[in-house]
Design brief:
227 residues, alpha/beta, Rossmann fold, 2 domains, 6-stranded parallel sheet, 11% strand
């Protein structure tokens, strides 16, 4: 069905009525896709020798796992791919220490969901060595029941493996949980896993995605509503 933005209260009710909520990380809980795009563009130029525009990053790579993006930029060269990944990790950890990218409103939303009895996990295509420092610094680490990173799966989004692994770790059926995503790859993965999906961010705002339960932009709007 075509996307229509839902009232924040409707989306909040969908999340609180679920047994569990699986959040994507980059671009969803963490507002960092601009940073990721910049770091990958730097790596493409400095390591691989070509320019990667913001538009190409958005259209080709948003929602894919970091290992998959690095491999694509390196043209399948394992040595170059490792160098791209090192550039990403060094730059990302440096920048989030300088300017944290997880808004307080997102932390408040997760805290409220957990307080209401909803299990919350993160399922992401990023590496654990990038995810865990951000979660610790924001206070989210203590609230989550599980995390699934690219380290934990063989196939990244749009494959549903990560979401199915999250369901397994939480002990909750796919139909009883809701996914919160910002990318087409993530929406496709949620759909393949048989999970309702809430789309947030720019794609929700411009109506360019389908096959999900609801859309809201931005995610932080939900934090101000009562559980």
């Amino acid at each position: 069905m075509p996307l229509s933005l839902s009232a924040p209260g409707t989306v909040r009710a969908l999340l609180t009525s679920a047994e569990a909520v699986l959040f994507d990380f980059n671009g969803t809980l963490s507002l960092d896709e601009d940073l990721m795009g910049r770091l990958y563009a730097e790596a493409a130029l400095e390591v691989c020798g070509f320019e990667l525009s913001a538009e190409e990053y958005r259209d080709r790579f948003v929602g894919l796992s970091d290992p998959d993006i690095c491999a694509a930029l390196a043209g399948g060269d394992d040595v170059l791919s490792a160098r791209v990944l090192d550039h990403l990790c060094e730059g990302y950890l440096r920048e989030i220490r300088r300017m944290p990218r997880i808004p307080a409103a997102h932390v408040a939303l997760v805290r409220d969901l957990v307080a209401s009895g909803t299990k919350v996990a993160v399922v992401t295509g990023t590496l654990r060595r990038l995810l865990e420092p951000a979660l610790e610094d924001s206070g989210l680490a203590a609230l989550l029941s599980a995390t699934v990173c690219s380290d934990d799966v063989e196939r990244g989004k749009p494959d549903p493996e990560g979401f199915l692994r999250g369901a397994e770790l939480l002990g909750v059926s796919a139909a009883a949980m809701v996914v919160v995503e910002d990318s087409l790859a993530g929406v496709a993965a949620a759909r393949a896993a048989g999970m309702p999906c809430v789309l947030v961010g720019p794609l929700a705002a411009d109506g360019s995605a389908a096959d999900h339960s609801a859309g809201v932009h931005p995610l932080g709007e939900l934090a101000a509503l009562a559980v």
